[in-house]
Amino acid sequence: MVGDTRQGWTLWAAAFVILVLGLALALPIEQRGNPLFAQLGVDQTASALQSGGNFEGKEVRFGIALSVLWAVVTTATSCGAVNAFHDSLMPLAGMVPMLNMQLGEVVFGGVGAGLYGMLMMAILAVFIAGLMVGRTPEYIGKKIESYEVKMAMLATLVLAASILGFTGLASVGEWGTKTLNNPGAHGFSEILYLFSSQTGNNGSAFAGIGGNNPFYNTTGGLAMLIGRYLMIVPLLAIAGSLAAKRRVPPSLGTFPTTGGVWVGLLVGVILIVGALTYFPALSLGPIVEHFQLAS
Predict the structure, then answer these.
(1) Which runs of consecutive H residues, i.e. helices, occur in 63-201?
(2) Percent above pLDDT 90 for the chain
(3) 3-state secondary structure of 53
(4) Helix, strand, or coil here: 43?
(5) How far is 251 from 48, CA to CA, in rounded Å?
(6) What is the DSSP letter of 87?
(7) How far is residue 65's CA from residue 34's CA, in Å, rounded to a whole number?
(8) Can you give the pTM of this predicted structure?
(9) In whole angstroms, what is the distance from residue 291 CA to residue 295 CA?
C-alpha cells in the first residue's frame, strides 16, 4: 500500500509539471501583447492599474494572469467554465488549452476522466521504458503485457480518431466552414478546438464558431459519445485484466515507478504521444497563425 501511495504521488507530480509547462508557455505570450494592435497604435504596456499585454476578450477585473491561469486549468481538467474568451487568446496561448484537452485532460483529472487517462499513459510509459532499458514492465505490482498495451493504445487512438477525423470532415466542405467567424488558420483552430472540447467532454469553445446547426450538433454528439464511452471500454478491459493478475514482488529487473526519473519519463511520454498525434493539425492552426502574426 505504501508503494501504491508513492505511485499516486508521482502521477500527481507529473500532472503538476504539465500544468506548469502550459502556464509557462501561455502567460508570457499573452503578456507580450498582440503585434497587430501595436501597429494600430494601441498602448499595450503596463499601467498603474493593469499589467500590459493582450486584453482582447478579457475582463479588466481579472486581468491577463488570472484569465490565462483559468484557461489552462479549466482545460487541464474537464471543467469547461471560462472567465475570458479563449478565441481571443494569442495563437500559441490558445494552443495550450487545446492541447490540454487533446492529451485526455490528464492533469489532475476531473469528472471521472483524467485519472484513467493518466493511468493509460502510465501503462504506455512503463512499456516504453521496458523496451529501452530491458526492465520488466510492471505497474502497481502487476505485470504489463501485450494485452494491456494494446488496450491502452486503442484508447489513445479512439480520442485522436474522433478529434482529427471530425475536424478534417468539417474543414473540407461548407457544412463545416460556413459558420466560421474567421477564415484561414484561425478558422481551422476554431474547428479543432470545438472537437477537442467535445471529445474531451470539456465544454469550453473558441466562441467565434457557430456550432448550433445540424452538422455540428450531430458530429458533436457523436464526438462526446466516442470520447466518453469508446475510450473507457478498453480502459475497463485493462482494469479487469490487472484485477485478475496476482501481485508480483519487485525484483532487480523491475523498472521503478516512483521518483524523479519516472516523473520525467511519464511527462515525456505524454508530451511525445501528444506531439506525434496532434502536431500536424496544430501546425495548420495555431502554429501557422503565430508565424503569420509575426510576419
Answers:
(1) 63-76, 91-102, 114-133, 146-171, 174-177, 184-199
(2) 41
(3) coil
(4) coil
(5) 61
(6) G
(7) 16
(8) 0.89
(9) 6
* Residue 57: closest CA among 48, 46, 70, 45: 70
CA distance 92 to 88: 11
- What is the domain partition of the chain in residue ranges? 2-294
- Please give the grid coordinates belonging to residue 108: 489532475
Q: What is the mean pLDDT of the chain?
A: 86
The answer to whether 206 and 193 have CB atoms below 8 angstroms apart is yes
Look at residue 2 in the predicted model and tell me its pLDDT. 38
Nearest to 252 by CA among 163, 135, 96, 91: 135
Report residue 109 as a C-alpha cell.
483529472
And the C-alpha cell for 105? 485532460
Closest CA to 110 of 76, 82, 81, 86: 76
Backbone angles phi, psi at 267, to 5 degrees: -60, -45
More confident residue, 115 or 30: 30
Question: 141-164 pLDDT, tens per residue?
Answer: 888 888 999 999 999 999 999 999
Q: Is the pLDDT of residue 222 over 90?
A: yes
Residue with cell string 445540424: 214
| Among 295, 232, 262, 237, CA closest to 10 | 262
Tell whether the model's pLDDT for residue 48 goes beyond 60: no
* pLDDT above 80 for 85: yes
Mapping DSSP to helix (H, G, I), strand (E, B) and coil, where does residue 231 land? helix
Cell numbers describing residue 155: 484508447
Residue 237, classed as helix, strand or coil, is helix
